[in-house]
Specification:
Order of helices and strands: HHEHEEEEH
Radius of gyration: 17 Å
Number of domains: 1
Number of helices: 4
Protein name: DUF3592 domain-containing protein
Organism: Dyella koreensis
Strand content: 25-35%
Distance between the termini: 63 Å
Structural class: alpha+beta
Shape: elongated
Largest sheet: 5 strands, antiparallel
Length: 119
């Protein structure tokens, strides 16, 4: 009985750590989407984020995730490659925003856009 209790406790601990890690990723990905100029232009400040597991699992790249987003300007689905910059930050490295009306906008930024935003 003690072994069952220990295994159950271990399973709960591992599950909690996995949930916490995923939750942190979603927070960081949301911040990256809020900071992206194309997302800001079309979605505005994001108020709601839901993972689109179906689209995410259909993507061949393990770093590409899909999120249904709702903001103060609109809603759609961000399908983007997220790269970890450090322990606290993700950044978007290409992808697309599919608006609720079906139109699609590229999320790739050219070097000039990034440099202009940094000034």
């Amino acid at each position: 009985m003690l072994a069952v209790g220990l295994l159950l406790g271990l399973a709960i601990t591992i599950g909690g750590i996995a949930w916490w890690g995923w939750h942190q990723f979603v927070i960081q990905a949301t911040a990256a989407m809020n900071e992206h100029p194309v997302v800001a232009q079309h979605i505005g400040h994001i108020r709601r984020v839901d993972v689109d597991w179906s689209t995410t699992t259909d993507e061949p790249d393990d770093d590409t995730f899909a999120f249904h987003v709702t903001g103060d300007r609109g809603n759609g689905t961000v399908i983007a490659r997220f790269l970890t910059e450090d322990d606290d930050h993700e950044r978007i490295d290409g992808g697309r925003l599919v608006m609720a009306d079906g139109s699609s906008v590229d999320l790739a930024l050219d070097v000039e856009t990034v440099e202009d935003g940094a000034r």
